[in-house]
């Protein structure tokens, strides 16, 4: 969530000084399972399917833009913005569907709507390793959440927006349906400094 998370945490702490917050990073399915079991109080989730998560409430917050990462030496890197169709000839490095089904489905659907089926290239276990692979060897591309791209510097890779903002994923705050709305956290998420 990049700088947005810092702004939310700052706003939350202003509202509840001295509160102790513990951040946990887990794959989406595990995060939702722990939330449903009461081991987590709340979770930020991108493009979740509420029908698959009975007992949980999804509160929409914002749409997260995805940007394209491609080799800095590739001719497309000279453009300020791309269309997905521009990438049809390059293999795509993308995480496995089991790790992030919403992301994989969104990219596959957007490519299909742009008139092509992406050719897969192996993705690494981490974003940093995937970006290192994009920046070396045969030209490939991947997608990165805009917030991650703003915080990432890989000299051999450039990040480019899509001209038509064809790739976004909604982000929700997720809580158990039986618990009261986390009004302080929601207010922190919606503060003017925290674009929502």
Describe the structure.
The protein has 6 helices and 8 strands. The chain has helices at 2-15, 28-36, 101-113, 127-134, 146-151, 183-189, and strands at 43-46, 56-71, 81-82, 92-93, 120-121, 142-145, 157-162, 168-176. The strands form 2 sheets. Strands 1, 2, 3, 6, 7 and 8 form a 6-stranded mixed beta sheet that branches. Strands 4-5 form a two-stranded parallel sheet. The mean pLDDT is 88. With 196 residues, the protein is α/β, with parallel strands linked by helices.
How is the secondary structure organized here?
Layout: H1 2-15, H2 28-36, E1 43-46, E2 56-71, E3 81-82, E4 92-93, H3 101-113, E5 120-121, H4 127-134, E6 142-145, H5 146-151, E7 157-162, E8 168-176, H6 183-189
Parallel strand pairs: 3-7, 4-5
Antiparallel strand pairs: 1-8, 2-6, 2-7, 2-8
Question: What distinguishing features does this structure have?
Answer:
8 strands, 196 residues, globular, single chain, six-stranded mixed β-sheet, 29% helix, two-stranded parallel ribbon
Instruction: Catalogue the unreliable spans.
Output: none
Task: State the end-to-end CA separation.
Answer: 12 Å
Main beta-sheet strand count, sense and barrel state = 6 strands, mixed
Q: How large is the share of residues in beta strands?
A: 15-25%
Count of alpha/pi helices: 6
Shape: globular
Radius of gyration: 18 Å
Q: Quickly give the structural class.
A: alpha/beta
- What is the average of the pLDDT values? 88
- Let me know the number of strands: 8
The arrangement of helices and strands along the chain is HHEEEEHEHEHEEH
Q: Please bin the fraction of helical residues.
A: 25-40%
